[in-house]
Every structure is written in structure tokens, then in C-alpha cells.
Amino acid sequence: MTADVVVLTFNGGEVLASCLERLREQTHAHTLIVVDNGSSDGSSELVRARFPEATLVVLPENRGFGRGIAAGVAAGRGEAIVLVNDDVEVEHGFVEAIVAPLAADAGVGMVAGLTTIPGADLVDGFGIELDVTLAAYNRLRRRPLDDTPGVLAMPSGGAAAYRRSAFEAAGGFDEALFAYGEDVDLGLRLRAAGWHAAAAADARGVHLGGATSGVDSPWQRRLAGFARGFVLRRYGVLHSAAAPRALLVEALVVTWGLVRFRTAIPLRARLAGWRAAGLTRVRTDPAAIDRSITLREALRRLRHAR
User: Is 119 buried (19+), middle (13-18) or exposed (0-12) by CB count in 10 A?
Assistant: First the structure.
């Protein structure tokens, strides 16, 4: 299966270089596409000088995750679209392992890779699992590699593969989402279209960490809140049996923001995301839900950054 590996970067610097070095060592033939999302640190020059084999797409400003990935996808033609965060160092055989489920099963439209925490035999993420309110959690987060994972809903955009035909038919990532939640929304739309998700435990990489927006920063809270409001409306969560639980959790999150940080950003962001989702509703595949995630467990994960 032909593959395009798309790496989106914003001021990636030497972390980006380390990511690309590992991809250069992959044995599965692929086209490497790097999208510079408006960097100001010379990332484009670094790619041109040290990775001339890469197709470089330079955007004039930071257009967010979805639009940045769309530019990279448009620059390739591979049957598989492999996404790797610029701060992930993949292991040997990563590309081969993550596209294998797509080649083996025509019904698979998306594949989750596994990332680990630097310096520890603990999982950073192995795809995404969803509770009944469609709140998303990193699967196996901070748990041993040999632990039993929960239900795989979809891959995380930081280490994922998509069948190009499925990705394009679904319209790719929704550009209304600047960052956060795009992978959940796309995964749910792919499932609604009949595609399955698969896990590739041998497609591994070390996630060096740290979102560029900062952990629990106002910017991060705004983006995450927007995505949450978007998902709640698009998938009709508040019209489902899970509505009371969803309303309780959202009230707790908004109240925490008001009390702890003295900000209404979580509330305003959720309202903005709700409006952006519009009136179109998408059905939810029941098989995407991990019903073992109780309210108590959901609150625990929320408290400990999922």
C-alpha cells in the first residue's frame, strides 16, 4: 500500500528534525510531506537543507491542525495517509505496521498507532476511547504497555493512518475546529459512513510531549471548550440518554474555570463551538462507546488530564 506521511509543524526546530530522522529510517516506502504551519524559527529552511527528499508545503500563517493537514494531504496521492506529530520519534517499522490493517481489511478506514511517555514504560496514548457523553480520552494513558486497553473509537491525530478514499469521502478534518477534537469528529463521521477502526500496537513512537498551546493555558481551554461544544451539538448528545451526565460534567468544568481560574472561557468557548456545529446531526456508532467508563472514572480522568 502506498503511503504519504504528513508531518505538521509549527516552530518545530530540532524536535522536528529528530522526528524526520526517524521517518527517514523507515523501511516501508513512503512520501514524506512536511507542512510548515507559519513557523518563524526557520523550520522550513531546516527541512530544505537537511531533508531535501521531503515535499515541503509552507503556509503563510498558522491555520490550525485541520487546515494544515488538509494542505499536506492535497500534496500527496498515497493510498494511506499517515499522520505523525512533529514531536514524536517513531520506532523502526512504524509506517509498515500502521498501514498493515488498511491493506489487510478493506473495511478498515482508520488505524491508531501507540505512543509512549519518554523515559518510562508507560503509554502516552493508543488511540481514543469515548464515554457515553462522547468525551474523549487517550486510550491506556499512563498505563503499562501490556495493560488491557478500552474500546478503540478512533485514532488520535498524532499517530494515525487513514485510508485516503475514506478520508476524502468524509471531507477530512472539519476546518471549523482549529485544534482539539478534529480526530474525534472525523472518526465519528467515518464510523457513521460504515468504516471501522483498527489498532496497530507495533506502530510505536515516543511522544516527546507538550502541546504548543501550553497545558491548561487559556488558549488550550478555549480550543478544548470549543471542540466540546461542537461535538455535543453535532452528535446530539444533549438529546440522548446521556444528557444528564453530560450536563453535570460540563457544569463542573465551567464552574471550575470560574472558581479556580476566574475565567468564563470554558463556557464561552462551548457556546461558540455549539454555534459552529450548525444544525446538521450525525449519528453515533454505538460500537464506538466504551460503556465501562463510569461517571466516577470520567471525573478521575478529567482531573488527571485524561
Answer: exposed
